Amino acid sequence: MEKPRYYFPEERDTANLEFSHLGFDYVACPYRFEAVFEHGVWRARGLLEDKVMHLPEGSQCLHYGQQLFEGMKVHRGPDGKIYAFRPRDNAGRLNSGARHLRGPEIPEALFLRGLEEVVQGNHPYVPPHGSGASLYARPFYLGVGDNVGVKPASTYVFRIFVSPVGPYYKGGFGPDQGKGFMVSKYDRAAPQGSGHIKAGGNYAASFHPGAEAKAAGFIDALYLDPSEHRYIEEVGAANFLAFKGEALLTPESPSILRSITRISLLEIASEIFNWPTESRKIALDELDEISAAACCGTAAVITWISHIVDDDRRWEFPFDHRWQQLYDVLVGIQTATREDPFGWRYEIQI
Ligand SMILES: Cc1ncc(COP(=O)(O)O)c(C=O)c1O
Question: In angstroms, rounded to a whole number, what is the distance separating the alpha carbons of residues 101 and 97?
Fold first, then answer.
């Protein structure tokens, strides 16, 4: 049987890009994967060349934010093999969002097939091992159709595009890369709203607070809980972490995103380093007793927080070597430079 045109396994080379100089920006790759849900069934359309989408003007995703997205990274190991990190967890989180937005779930097998095909099709864009860059995969899900009423769609598009990326926060990770965050007066999500799912509207709501923080000289906003404005939630695109004495702390709240990086770091902390971990409410005032702060996410990996400012209060946090220990294990597993005792790597055959 003739191979589909987009498989080019004989090509082992990489695209002509300066991978080590990439920021977190969109780079158009040749192919994107698409599937459509219509008449009650998902149908894969396979890889498409057109990065421009053609949608009905009445689509729910355009008017009512019936939209979800995911973000995950794909790395090339020292042996040239290609690995995604915990993609089943992204599929599960997308489906919890689909349930909340009253759309159909995506079969995990379809999600994984889409990821594999889009990475296979664009494999020269998977950055070389050691470049510090990765291939970011952006699955997303749209309610579409000829509609005007406020109700869920009956047709959905699921697409995954990929883009090679460098660090999310300029400068990336390291003891000379402390980032400052400003406590926001705004909320990114409602107390019992959609903050726990990766719905696009949550992110539009963070543009104004984020822009205010940046204008004031900070890297981003830090949000407090939307009911009392007393407890730390998370930052624009990453969960919050802190060390208090021996323990690694992370906030628990119904309105933050369940970060896959966070659950991985908690597991590394307890299973590999035997450090105590606590997921619980963390009051802003408790920063007085915290010795180190950071945030974590697929894009942000681990980002050291050097200072947090709330009006006239300011907390400073030194670089803690335990961030480096966590970073080395996490990135070592992701990039296949160390063993993966948890089974998190997902190999994509080219
Ligand atoms: C609001 C928010 N919190 C946390 C995270 C981190 O989640 P993950 O580690 O699954 O990427 C992200 C990024 O995906 C995010 O957008």
Answer: 6
Pocket test for ligand 1, best of 68, 72, 239 (most atoms within 8 A of CB): 239
Q: Whose CA is nearest to atom 15 of ligand 1?
A: 237
**Strand ranges inside 269-319, DSSP E:** 277-280, 292-297, 301-310, 313-316
Quickly count: other Cβ atoms within 10 Å of residue 258's Cβ: 14
165-175 pLDDT, tens digit each: 999 988 889 89
Q: Is the pLDDT of residue 194 over 70?
A: yes
Specify which residues 316 forms β-bridges with.
Answer: 307
* Assessment of whether the complete model's pTM goes beyond 0.90: yes
Q: Dihedral, CA atoms, 90, 96, 100, 103, nearest 10 degrees?
A: 80
Concatenated DSSP letters for 246-288? Answer: TEEEEE--TTS---HHHHHHHHIIIIIS---EEEE--BGGGGG
Torsion of CA 251, 252, 253, 258, to 10 degrees: 90
- Does ligand 1 have an atom closer than 6 angstroms to the CB of 301? no
Query: What residues are paired with 74 via a beta bridge?
Result: 84, 135
